[in-house]
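If you are new to this repository, start here. Below is one unmodified record pulled from the training split, so you can see the exact layout before writing a loader.
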Amino acid sequence: MGGIYNALIVGRSSNYDHRVEGASPHGIITPRSDGYTVKGIRFYNFDWRNASAIGTCSHCHMASSTDSGARTVRLSGLWFDSTVPRRIRYRTPFKAILYDLDGSLTGIGPKTWATPYYKHHEVPECKVSMFIHDGVICDSTVQVRRVVFHDPLPAELEGQPMKVLLYSDWKL
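And here is the target side for that same chain:
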């Protein structure tokens, strides 16, 4: 699997170019594909503007992109210096699934989740963490999954908004 392993990522150092002050960079921008791994990364000096350690969906911001997002990235062994107040800042289309294998991203334990905030994420297993995680973080009792429809017939779903309802009466 593709990934980034055992890296040191510095947002800015003492000899930075002054033009970086106007930027809001990301240390890592995850791809728009499933199965990517981010492991053993140390982040330093992302403490200005909207800089963050992690961004999502590389190239989804391009006009020609038709990706719907919500790809799952597996993360572990992350370390954030105190100069990294924002761990995540989601990017267009604001649909991503970050699976924290050891709790180093969410801080709430292993096999937990981080994903952008949407109203339907307001459940007891998830808590809103807008500044640090730019969305919600969910405990290990839930699973966050991508929902996608492949090859619908023409006009089957066209113009139809998707509504997601909490339904807690189902059984596995």
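Two things worth knowing about this chain: Helices lie at 130-133. The chain has a mean pLDDT of 88.
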